[in-house]
Amino acid sequence: MPSEFKKTKINGVYVLETKTFKDKRGYFAETYNKQEFTEKGIPNTFIQDNESESSYGVIRGLHMQLPPYDQAKLVRVVHGRVLDVAVDVRPESPTFGEHVAVVLSKRNKKQLFIPRGFLHGFAVLSKKATFVYKVDNVYKPTAEFGIRYDDPEINIQWPIEQDKIITSPKDNMANTLADLKKKLQEIIKSENTK
Q: Which of 41, 97, 113, 144 is surrounded by the fewest CB atoms within 10 Å?
């Protein structure tokens, strides 16, 4: 098997230990295998790959798309090092509001599988980082929802000095977890009245 799937404290979120095969030429690693994922109970079909590059101190997130445009993600780092965070916001989940934080780097070759119904964000811990990820649903701008990286209810311990944090203007104006709870309740209520 190319990867080892390790469960996290939140149901459905996995850290993948990607096996690499090294020789004098370099290395080879299989980073995704649909059959392997399906056998592990992850039948998602990824439809798009994305890539971003960021500098030290950049925090991207916390982002998601609201149902029915929510996305599962398979994330990894191909250059540098980040702290990657997934926050459970599935309305009926016993771990609603809890998060998993994992260091992903070129060196450790770890990946994080994040199912639908999660906020996602990361902080760059190296001089630069190239972050790549697969998604299983289309991008819909009107379904975007963001929560501030420093929302006190979620209480993520970002390992970057406060004066070194760089965020986008959009992320600085993002919502709170309480705002998201209200929005998800509205969506559920709307679905139930159809």
A: 41
